Amino acid sequence: MTDLFSRPFAPAATGFSGSPIDRADHMRRDPQAVFAARMHPGARWLPFDQLKPLIDDDRLGWIRRSDLADEALEIFLGLDDGMPRFAAAMSAEGLDGEARDVRAAAMTLSPADAAIAAHGRSLVDWHQRHGFCANCGAMTALAKAGYARSCGGCGAEHFPRTDPVVIMLALDGDRCLLGRQPQFPKGFMSALAGFVEPGESIDEAVRRELHEEAGIRIGRVAHVASQPWPFPSSLMIGAFAEAETTEIRLDDDELEEARWFTKDEIHAVFAGNGPVNAPPPMAIAWTLLRTWADN
């Protein structure tokens, strides 16, 4: 058996990653450059209606400046092959295509388009939830072309945040641990996950979460891959965790069920005739399972 904890992994492609957008940080701090980008004939905007991107025939529904709503919140995403790209919080009514949930859209979008949709959704959501300063309570305004908000009261600057989340497979030889939360669809199980807490390393978070949720003690931890997750804005950090104990003791508030699965069972899951349903390919849990099962 390959020792998965003694070698590095090649970076794995994960859902919502691989965007072609050059984020053009140098332009964000230059209002004239951003204005020129807005006026560029190749500039396009991606509408987000209630955080749902406009999708037209399984492609992102980019619009021109002439279709932009007067009240739209605009965020400069960057440059795509030199062409300016923006996100816009606005109604999709009257536009070609339909506003579609990012999870659903990602099943049919190209990986590049799914990554752009995730990028825009996270930023739009952050702006819509941070209209007031956490320092003094005054109203804030969009700054740095959408990558900050500034407070008109105390002058504080606020920046979009990404919450780190560990998601991991506990491994016991040729077995892996999967669990299901009460809100999961029937028959669906996935890798266990949890937020990294203040003052905690990634490895410590992996060990703590597995012990809290399933009662499993963990030794070595190996990083596998990471994934942006725009619901609302997390960084999923995928890992393998070497089980030192195997008896499962569930935290009933977190998990409804957890059990060990063999590689044969996981291969059957991928073939569509296993004992449970697998996470979709866009989820990093799928990447973890596939990487483990194929090694």
What does this structure look like?
- 23% of the residues lie in helices and 29% in strands.
- With 295 residues, it is an alpha+beta fold.
- It has helices at residues 25-28, 31-39, 102-106, 111-129, 202-214, 263-271, 284-293; strands at 44-49, 52-55, 73-80, 83-89, 98-99, 140-143, 148-151, 157-158, 163-172, 175-180, 192-195, 218-229, 234-243, 257-262.
- Helix 6 crosses helix 7.
How would you summarize what this structure contains?
With 295 residues, this protein is an alpha+beta fold.
The run of helices and strands is HHEEEEEHHEEEEEEHEEEHH
Radius of gyration from the CA trace?
21 Å
Q: Largest beta sheet, briefly?
A: 6 strands, mixed
Strand coverage percent: 25-35%
Structural class: alpha+beta
Chain oligomer state: single chain
Tally of helical segments: 7
- Average predicted confidence as pLDDT: 95
Distance between the termini: 8 Å
- Helicity level, as a percent range? 10-25%
Residue runs with pLDDT of under 50 for 5 or more positions: none
Q: What overall form do the CA principal axes indicate?
A: globular
Provide key terms for this protein.
single chain, 295 residues, alpha+beta, 5-stranded mixed β-sheet
Write the layout of secondary structure elements.
Layout: H1 25-28, H2 31-39, E1 44-49, E2 52-55, E3 73-80, E4 83-89, E5 98-99, H3 102-106, H4 111-129, E6 140-143, E7 148-151, E8 157-158, E9 163-172, E10 175-180, E11 192-195, H5 202-214, E12 218-229, E13 234-243, E14 257-262, H6 263-271, H7 284-293
Parallel strand pairs: 1-4, 9-13
Antiparallel strand pairs: 1-2, 2-5, 3-4, 6-7, 7-8, 9-10, 9-11, 10-14, 12-13
